[in-house]
Design brief:
By secondary structure, the protein is of the alpha/beta class. The chain has helices at about 5-20, 25-35, 40-45, 50-65, 85-100, 100-110, 125-130, 145-150, 185-195, 210-215, and strands spanning about 40, 65-70, 75-80, 120, 135-140, 155, 175-180, 200-210.
Length: about 220
């Protein structure tokens, strides 16, 4: 039989990853880093956190080997350590959604569909078919830094907060398929609602850039 103390030590080491992910805000930081590397200030702003708190969360994630750093001039930029971290994050979401009814309730409230009025969506296979047929314009509504770090080939970049004043950049007679970060990203929902209110034909991709990358589909602009 194996040594009980050594067995406990092994499982304690494994638990370091679980403990690092045991915070909603740290999961939010992983979600952001799955889109593009960022400095502490940019992450703090995007996550609605103070700089000191953000730094502490990032150090916890780094000690668990989930994020890595590089220097860009005087700025320390954080990124996911590897694609397996993105896959782990996506799988955690899937398990939580399957096991915890509260996840779905929180999702519908956040995405603004708790009244049952969801925006129309298509899956990745249908999007690829429509793109191949030249039937749609693909619209990336994430912040431009995320678009620059990698996007669906051929996509047009208009961040959702700029969409009201940049509608003229989209052809009026072609359907728009909007996408954002992932299955729990509200930006594409907001874009579709805005486009429909302006009389445009619009749907959204059912998930987003995280799932697109994990599916091994082509990514343009990635370093």
């Amino acid at each position: 039989m194996g040594d009980a103390g050594r067995k406990s030590e092994l499982f304690d080491q494994l638990a370091r990853v679980g403990k690092a992910m045991g915070s909603g805000k740290r999961l939010e930081l992983l979600d952001l880093l799955a889109q593009a590397p960022r400095g502490v200030a940019a992450l703090a702003s995007a996550a609605g956190l103070g700089l000191t708190t953000t730094s502490a969360h990032l150090q916890t994630l780094k000690r668990a080997g989930l994020v890595a750093t590089s220097r860009d001039g005087t700025t320390i930029r954080y990124r996911l350590a590897d694609t397996d971290v993105a896959a782990l994050f996506a799988h955690l979401r899937s398990v939580a959604a399957a096991r915890l009814p509260d996840v779905e309730a929180a999702r519908t409230r956040y995405l603004g569909i708790d009244d049952g009025e969801d925006t129309e969506h298509v899956d990745r296979e249908e999007l690829l078919r429509r793109v191949e047929a030249g039937e749609v314009v693909v619209l990336d509504v994430r912040p431009w830094q995320e678009f620059a770090a990698g996007h669906i080939p051929g996509a047009v970049s208009i961040p959702v907060d700029e969409l009201p004043v940049r509608l003229s950049e989209l052809p009026a007679d072609v359907e728009v398929v909007a996408y954002c970060r992932g299955a729990y990203c509200v930006l594409a929902h907001d874009a579709v609602r805005l486009l429909e209110a302006e009389g445009r034909r619009a749907v959204r991709l059912a998930d987003g850039m995280l799932e697109w990358r994990l599916a091994g589909l082509p990514v343009a602009g990635a370093a």
